[in-house]
Amino acid sequence: MVREKGLEREKAWLEKEYHNTLAELERLREVLRGEVEMDLDEISPDLYERDKTMALIQSLEMRLDSIKRALRAIEKGTYGICERCGAPIDPARLEARPDATLCLKCQSELERIVKRRRVKGEMGF
């Protein structure tokens, strides 16, 4: 019963975070559209600001995906179970990061793989 209340609280937080993230994404997309329109009129692109806005958009899109996966896991009854290895996700991790769908070990392994691929890509391999 206590877990159900915790799950309800986490679901409410995730839904609120989803809507906040979506609103911020829309705001940044509007900013980006304004930057593009302004650049076309002035023929003076501020690439740094545009790149920064696009990076923020990409980061928020990834966050939105993470939140959606966590909400789907709640609906399926698999919330708190690692998507990769099937082990329980540490409750302290879920407390700190309610949208976590990987245990800490799998998350660390995934980050190492991504970093390795990025380094190889930069080296031209």
In short:
The chain has four helices and no strands. It has 125 residues and is mainly α. The chain has one domain: Four Helix Bundle (Hemerythrin (Met), subunit A).
Q: Keywords, please?
A:
Four Helix Bundle (Hemerythrin (Met), subunit A), mainly alpha, 0% strand, 78% helix
How would you describe what is shown here?
With 125 residues, the protein is mainly alpha-helical. The chain has one domain: DksA, coiled-coil domain (Four Helix Bundle (Hemerythrin (Met), subunit A)). It contains four helices and no strands. It starts with a helix and ends with a helix.
As a whole number of angstroms, the C-alpha radius of gyration is 19 Å
Helix run count: 4
Compute the number of structural domains.
1
What's the β-strand tally? 0
Class per helix and strand makeup: mainly alpha
- CATH homologous superfamily heading: DksA, coiled-coil domain
Low-confidence stretches: none
- Please state the second-level CATH architecture: Up-down Bundle
User: What is the CATH first-level class name?
Assistant: Mainly Alpha
Terminal residue distance: 53 Å
Strand fraction equals: under 5%
Q: Mean pLDDT, nearest integer?
A: 87
Helix content: over 70%
Under CATH, the topology can be stated as Four Helix Bundle (Hemerythrin (Met), subunit A)
Q: Overall 3D geometry?
A: flat
| Main beta-sheet strand count, sense and barrel state | none
